[in-house]
Design brief:
Length: 295
């Protein structure tokens, strides 16, 4: 494989070429989505917010009673060395911990040996056009799989609702789906957090709404505070999208993406707005600062 664009998979710490990486069909992650995971990226070749991602992994695992197979510090060290060993200029990293293999059936009363997998691949962020012109999204009414369970707000492997929501998005020529809960509030994206700007004020659903507390979301909230932006953490009724001046989504890989169409209707003037652009610039600058990058 060409150095610089390699995907490598580390299963319980053992490196494999992507095609050769295999796990058992009896693994609970495969059978039931009985797993937790994290997705992160590098800047300047080093992982961004690794302690925050590891802390969330630990919280997710605890919520669904999966024992992390190694201390967080060891998993962090493994992620760092996996990135270096893979050798891409910038990497996408996924860390997965499953409950391990067991007998068929939902009973968790077996001696579990959780499995850990680290996938490191080349980072492929959205094209520049997505940032310059913005993206379209669709709304998707549903109850989250994990809603009202211990797993609410955690990053568990079962993403079927998000997968179905993204099918709708793709069919409509959109790039993300915004999940609308039973109460008619926009909760988050299929794989992102959502922000709305009205009258210069930034608004995003609170953690209590059952969202995944995004690492990018909290970083952006810090940046917003530093920029002196007014921020409101409150439920966002789906109707607020139509009357919003600006909407954007955030995630580790996409950072901050302006949303210019919701269900085919333009948001604001139909192009990325000034608050979104200001925050995006602030975000990039802050990342460079915390990662000690010069340009
Ligand atoms: C459901 C959901 N919400 C929010 C996010 C954004 O989280 P982060 O900023 O930590 O990547 C993700 C990321 O994959 C997600 O899957």
């Amino acid at each position: 494989m060409v150095r610089g664009v390699t995907t490598r998979v580390f299963i319980d710490g053992v490196p494999h070429e992507a095609e050769a990486a295999k796990v058992s069909v009896f693994d609970r992650g495969f059978l039931y989505g009985d797993s937790v995971f994290e997705t992160l990226r590098t800047y300047g070749g080093r992982p961004f917010a690794l302690p925050e991602h590891m802390a969330r992994l630990e919280r997710s695992a605890e919520a669904v009673c999966i024992a992390l197979p190694a201390p967080c510090a060891d998993v962090s060290a493994e992620v760092e060395s996996a990135i270096v060993a893979t050798g891409n200029p910038e990497s996408y990293v996924r860390v997965i911990v499953t409950r391990g293999s067991g007998p068929l059936g939902l009973d968790t009363g077996f001696e579990a040996h959780p499995l850990r997998v680290v996938i490191v691949g080349p980072l492929s962020p959205p094209p520049a056009e997505a940032y310059e012109r913005g993206i379209g999204v669709v709304t998707y009414r549903t109850q989250r799989v994990a809603e009202a369970t211990e797993a609410a707000g955690t990053k568990v492997g079962n993403y079927l609702v998000a997968v179905l929501a993204m099918r709708n998005a793709r069919a409509a020529g959109a790039s993300e789906a915004l999940i609308v809960d039973g109460a008619g509030n926009v909760v988050e994206g299929a794989t992102s957090n959502v922000f709305v700007v009205r009258g210069g004020r930034l608004c995003t659903p609170p953690v209590e709404a059952g969202i995944l507390p995004g690492i990018t979301r909290s970083f952006l909230l810090r940046v917003a505070a530093e920029l002196g932006l007014e921020v409101e953490l409150r439920p966002v009724p789906v109707g607020d999208l139509a009357s919003a001046d600006e909407v954007f989504v955030s995630s580790s890989i996409r950072e901050l993406l302006p949303v210019v169409r919701v269900d085919g209707r333009a948001v604001g003037v139909g192009s990325p707005g000034p608050v979104t652009l200001r925050l995006y610039r602030g975000f990039r600058e802050k990342v460079r600062e915390v990662m000690g990058l010069s340009e």
